[in-house]
Design brief:
about 130 residues, alpha+beta, Thrombin, subunit H, six-stranded antiparallel β-barrel, 2 helices, about 45% strand
């Protein structure tokens, strides 16, 4: 019998909404400028999704870094991340950037917290 994680998923989502702020996830996609002449080049368009995320600066905070290392594995000294709840209909691992107000962060890694088939949240490691 499969375990039902719906209550845990709604708790994670409500906590992220309560303590988070609105950020945009950006994904570059190439669009042919002229489909009948693909040699003429392609333009780059940004797909964006607006989500609520919690910014977690892990740089130099020893207690947070030790806890994170126990839960998720090794951690570098310059790591920062955003925690976002599961987004229906989007694969967060395909995005390249996070825009928080005027600052744009480059996504270096995306860790999925997913017991079974239920995506609880994403830990998006950023650099920039």
């Amino acid at each position: 019998m499969a375990k039902d994680y719906s209550r845990l998923k709604s708790l994670v989502s409500s906590l992220i909404k309560k303590y988070g702020r609105t950020v945009k996830l950006l994904r570059n996609s190439r669009v042919d400028s002229n489909p009948s002449a693909p040699w003429s080049g392609a333009s780059i368009a940004d797909d964006e999704v607006t989500v609520v995320g919690v910014y977690v600066p892990l740089t130099g905070q020893q207690a947070v870094m030790e806890t994170h290392a126990q839960l998720m594995g090794s951690v570098s000294r310059s790591k920062n991340c955003f925690l976002i709840a599961g987004v229906d209909g989007e694969d967060i691992r395909t995005f390249q950037k996070v825009q928080d107000d005027n600052k744009i962060w480059r996504i270096t890694d995306v860790n999925v917290v997913q017991p079974g088939s239920t995506v609880l949240m994403y830990e998006i490691e950023v650099d920039g």
